[in-house]
Amino acid sequence: MQPSVGHPSAGPAGATEGRLLVLAGGLSHERDVSLRSGRRVAEALRDIGVEVDVRDVDADLLASLREEPPMCVLPLLHGETGEDGALREVLELLGLPYVGAQPAACRAAFDKPVAKEVVTRAGLRTPRSVTLPHEAFRELGAAGVMSAMVSSLGLPLFVKPARGGSALGCTVVPDAAALPGAMVTAFAYGHTALVEQLVVGQEVAVPVVDTGSGPRALPVVSIEADGGVYDYTARYTAGSTEFVVPAKLADDVVAECARVAVTAHQALGLRDLSRSDLIVDADGTVWFLEVNLAPGLTETSTVPLSVQAEGLDLGELMVDLVRVAVARRSSGA
Amino acid sequence: MSGVSRRNPGSATRLDSYVDRYAARTRGMTASEIRALFAVASRPEVVSLAGGMPNISGLPLDVVGGAISDLVRHDGPAALQYGSGQGDPGLREQICEVMRLEGIEGHPDDVVVTVGSQQAVDLVTRIFCDPGDVVVCEAPSYVGALGVFRAFECDVVHVEMDDKGLVPEALRQALRTVQASGRRIKFIYTIPNYHNPAGVSLATSRRAEVLDIAREADVLVLEDNPYGLLGFDDEPYRALRADEPDGVIYLGSFSKTFAPGFRVGWALAPHAVREKLVLAQEAATLCPPSFSQLAVRTYLATHDWRGQVNAFREMYRERRDAMIDALEDMMPAGVRWNIPDGGFYVWLTLPAGLDAKAMLPRAVSSRVAYVPGTAFFADGFGSQSMRLSYCYPTPERIREGVRRLVGVIEEELELRETFGSMAVDRHGLISRGYESPNTDLT
Question: CA 20 to 30 Å from A198, out of A72, B15, B289, B441?
Answer without folding.
Answer: B15
